[in-house]
Write a structure and sequence with these properties.
The chain is 37% helix and 24% strand. The protein is of the alpha/beta class and 301 residues long. Bound molecules: adenosine monophosphate.
């Protein structure tokens, strides 16, 4: 089963109370694919600039991520994001977002990317998410993410895109902001009214919750003590989740999704143990499986 992801491909600058990095490989689609490629063949779609070099491609290729649909824009600069984390690492401020090559990007997917069985519309402008959704008519399971910036500046457009997916995967605070509803379960039901069958709310160190019309499932985060920097945790959660669904042939019934959430949770726990997604670069599948087994010992899924 094949998996296509569109989202940002970025350079990130991050500051935490205990250290900073000026230039890390980042972007929602990158964090996602470094996790999803553990489970299923993953094609990544998005533009990069001249500053995106062999070293960056190498990180993706070492994980087997297929980059044929990464479009290099001559003279362009890669998307750039800068953020600062507070002492409570669940809180961060965005310091800078430069769309750069994403400003004029029009996705033109290869036949192989269009044929994906499973599709993830990672965090990026909602109109680009729609353009990719329309090109992937064969997908059996489609999920999307978003974030506060797009809820603020493209609310209507985002709401329309949510109707086009089977599953919405967003931060709990963003779900509340999107629906203007403070209660998480009510907020999820309002989001279900927009069209998806499933809403998955990411709750940072508290874990995640899956809400359907007639069901609720919650899983704690993997209890790591070793938190270095959390950028991309949400995307690697989605990568593990969607990669697992793709590996099950695109079956996205509730039992599969519960187990997929455990795989996403394990991937996210590794993500937070290094800057950016560095901890995923050389991660072994057995390390992920061990954390899923540990989660299974404390929860039922
Ligand atoms: P997360 O920590 O899971 O929210 O993901 C952070 C990643 O999202 C970083 O690597 C950024 O490059 C990327 N990012 C931040 N803001 C945006 C945005 N407005 N659109 C797309 N990607 C973004």
């Amino acid at each position: 089963m094949t998996l296509t992801v569109v989202g940002s491909i970025a350079f990130d600058a991050v500051e935490t109370p205990s250290g900073s990095r000026e230039r890390l490989l980042g972007g929602s689609a990158v964090h996602f694919s470094l996790a999803s490629s553990q489970f299923a063949e993953t094609r990544i779609v998005g533009p990069v600039g001249d500053d995106f070099g062999e070293a960056e491609y190498e990180i993706l290729h070492r994980r087997g991520v297929l980059t044929d649909d990464v479009e290099r824009v001559p003279g362009g600069k890669t998307f750039f994001w800068a953020g600062r984390y507070h002492r409570d690492i669940n809180n961060r401020d965005t310091l800078q977002t430069d769309l750069n090559v994403f400003e004029d990007f029009r996705p033109k997917l290869s036949a192989a990317s269009r044929a994906a069985d499973v599709l993830f519309l990672g965090n990026i402008q909602p109109d680009l998410q729609r353009e990719v959704r329309e090109q992937c008519q064969a997908a059996r399971f489609v999920a999307m993410d978003s974030m506060n910036l797009w809820i603020d500046i493209a609310h209507e457009s985002l709401v329309q895109k949510i109707a086009l997916v089977d599953c919405l995967v967003v931060n709990d605070s963003e779900l509340r902001q999107l629906t203007d509803e403070p209660n998480l379960v009510r907020a999820a039901h309002k989001a279900l009214d927009l069209g998806p069958r499933v809403v998955i709310a990411k709750q940072g160190e508290y874990g995640s919750a899956m809400i359907t019309r007639d069901g609720y499932f919650g899983l704690t985060a993997y209890p790591t003590t070793d938190i270095v920097e959390p950028t991309g945790a949400g995307d690697s959660f989605a990568g593990g989740l969607m990669g697992y669904v793709a590996a099950q042939g695109g079956d996205a019934g509730d039992p599969t999704l519960r187990r997929a959430i455990a795989y996403g949770t394990a991937c996210a726990s590794f993500n937070v143990e290094g800057f950016g997604s560095e901890r995923l670069y050389a991660l072994e599948r057995a390390e992920i499986d061990a954390r899923v087994a540990a989660l299974e010992a404390i929860s039922r899924f």
